[in-house]
Amino acid sequence: MGLGDPPADYGSIAAVGLFVALICVCIVVGHLLEESRWMNESITALIIGLGTGGVILMVSSWKHSRILVFSEDLFFIYLLPPIIFNAGFQVKKKQFFRNFMTITLFGAIGTLISFSVISLGSLGLISRLNIGSLDLGDYLALGAIFSATDSVCTLQVLNQDETPFLYSLVFGEGVVNDATSVVLFNAMQNFDLANFSSVKFLQFIGNFLYLFATSTFLGVAAGLLSAYIIKKLYFGRHSTDREVSIMMLMAYLSYMLAELLDLSGILTVFFCGIVMSHYTWHNVTESSRVTTKHAFATLSFIAETFLFLYVGMDALDMEKWKIVSETYSPMKSIALSATILFLVLVARAAFVFPLSFLANLTKKTEEGKISIKQQVTYMMWVIQVIIWWAGLMRGAVSIALAYNKFTRSGHTQLPSNAIMITSTITVVLFSTMVFGLLTKPLIRLLVPARYLNRESSALSDPPSPKSFLDPPILNGSEVDPEIGVGIRRPTSLRLLLASPTRSVHHYWRKFDNAFMRPMFGGRGFVPFVPGSPTERSVPLLQGNEN
């Protein structure tokens, strides 16, 4: 260490250096396994994290396997925001909003059903295992913890280009589901169960709807504000760095404001990403468009990889496993994990299939149904099974909530709390490894190859964060009345809640073109001034959004 240098915390340096090296290894291994029908980058990172944790465990004489203590603050404040924002920024907006009501139905109502099934099942089954003193609040917390799906892993196992509807529905539901689960968890933490009444229940429902609406509004407002500022001030005249910085910082600011106001930062930053991709992204210079698109994707990728490495290394921490092994028999630990996994399977089925049937009742045409009624149609059954299966994975949100409930600063000495943490880790590892590994093969097994789009996306930079051409996934075609161009549409996937052509989306586009874009910018409405951002000379389909 040279003269004048500050003293270094070599433990922190070693920890950061190790994670950087492991992320590099994950990138190389992920590239080599790119064509694998089984593996994906999240599972690769999880396995490497487990392996590294095992090595550290042996080197430390079986004392510890991690160099960082799992922190829900690290997860919710630093790792989750770039992942969720990039998902909103890159999502195919037309697919997402055409299925928005179904996504909300599955993500909000479905999560409430899952929460109820898991909570009641835990109260009836786990209470019989005699694992310790758990009160009603603990069982309700378990319902919220294991209702949270792993939307991060969904990004890896589903392909947005091959199965755009499945991706938009399962991932969109996952975002709403995670937000709902966190809200339910926090509500259960602060709910006075001793003085429960119907009035308080209605108040809880009202608070939930208020939180959902205000979180969405805050995200939309932050996105519109960034678009308006960049459109009016046009930072690109002097420095493209400033417009890129303002996009990144305002996106993160929206998340932090939501957390400060006790709203859902997940919903806020997700909708902020959608609005920024629709307006703000078109107001910056060409070089900034390329920069932001790849910068957001890179930050998200690094956060995802770090997250799974983090979970894998923490899973082998000996403190909690030692407490559990000294207090409970191995069979009791296995029985608890198996019971939780069984409740997750049942809870997922309890809302996917009934809500699919309920969604059919709101459709006026046969093509807009998810139908269970027509079970003779093979694809109708297959899609519902895939939707059920893809939502079975549990991930870092469940672990973070479990640590929040059953530990203090990542540590616990209570056997009942320790076994809850180890069971949560077991369920997360099993569901991610088994369900995650089998999802891609399951889709290829159940869905005929002719229904999957294998066309490569355009190599040139598109006029929006994703390709402006919505690739066909099934045979069949229809004419989009808004653009007057024949677009191939799914025949048997029309059952997947495709909205009627003249739907809310149609009227929104008219309002957007008449009022929103002239004020906030967007493709085709940014006035030309010397040095202003211009559209590249490629044939665009006016009004055809992702």
UniProtKB/TrEMBL annotation:
Main location, first listed in the record: membrane
Catalytic activity: K(+)(in) + H(+)(out) = K(+)(out) + H(+)(in); Na(+)(in) + H(+)(out) = Na(+)(out) + H(+)(in)
Mode of membrane association: Multi-pass membrane protein
GO biological process annotation, one example: sodium ion import across plasma membrane
Subcellular location: Membrane
Residue span(s) of domain Cation/H+ exchanger transmembrane: 22-443
Alphabetically ordered keywords of this record: Ion transport, Membrane, Potassium, Potassium transport, Sodium, Sodium transport, Transmembrane, Transmembrane helix, Transport
InterPro entries recorded: Cation/H_exchanger_CPA1 (IPR018422), Cation/H_exchanger_TM (IPR006153), NaH_exchanger (IPR004709)
GO molecular function: potassium:proton antiporter activity; sodium:proton antiporter activity
UniProt xrefs under Pfam families: Na_H_Exchanger
Gene Ontology cellular-component annotations: plasma membrane
TM annotation in the entry: 12-33, 45-62, 74-91, 103-127, 165-188, 208-230, 251-276, 296-313, 334-358, 378-402, 414-438
PANTHER family recorded: SODIUM/HYDROGEN EXCHANGER, SODIUM_HYDROGEN EXCHANGER
Protein name per Swiss-Prot or TrEMBL: Cation/H+ exchanger transmembrane domain-containing protein
Lineage of the organism: Eukaryota, Viridiplantae, Streptophyta, Embryophyta, Tracheophyta
